[in-house]
Amino acid sequence: MEKVYTAVVTATGGRRGRVKSDDGVIDMKTSLPEGLGGQGGSTNPEQLFAAGYSACFQSALLVVAGKQHLRLDPESTVTAHVDLNRRDDGGYALGVKLEVDLKGVDKDKARQLVEEAHEICPYSVGTRGNVEVELEIV
Questions:
Q1: What is the largest CA-CA distance in the chain?
Q2: CA-closest candidate to residue 100, choices 129, 77, 73
Q3: I want to staple 133 with a disulfide (CB 3.0 to 4.6 A). Which of 2, 23, 78, 96 is the partner?
Q4: How does DSSP assign 43-109, residue by residue?
Q5: Residue 37, φ and ψ in degrees, nearest 5
Q6: Cα–Cα–Cα angle for 110, 116, 121, rounded to 5 degrees
Q7: 129, pLDDT greater than 90
């Protein structure tokens, strides 16, 4: 395996702190989600994960479509829903639903593209077997 990129982000203070990338592009306050008793108004790890996963999956869709000489509508979207779930043992785990809207693509073709993208998306590869990921075509 060849490393092609490394993102470097430092967290200080956990969920009630700050995240900052080494290049300064990300420099954000973090807070507990309101559902966990937080005040809101700042991002949280689940939102950041959802942002990364949805953007990465959209790119994987573009790669898969391009290999089939298809051009996706620029208004097509991937919406990631990232759940923080409490396990029976008191710990926490993530759950993900990717809601994919491939405008102008019939459901069967969309399903095929989404399944192929799920095989190559680095987030999908990294979570496989560890995080339940539901794929929904809208």
A1: 48
A2: 77
A3: 96
A4: B-HHHHHHHHHHHHHHHHHHHHHHHTT----TT-EEEEEEEEEE-TTS-EEEEEEEEEE-TT--HHH
A5: 95, 5
A6: 115
A7: yes
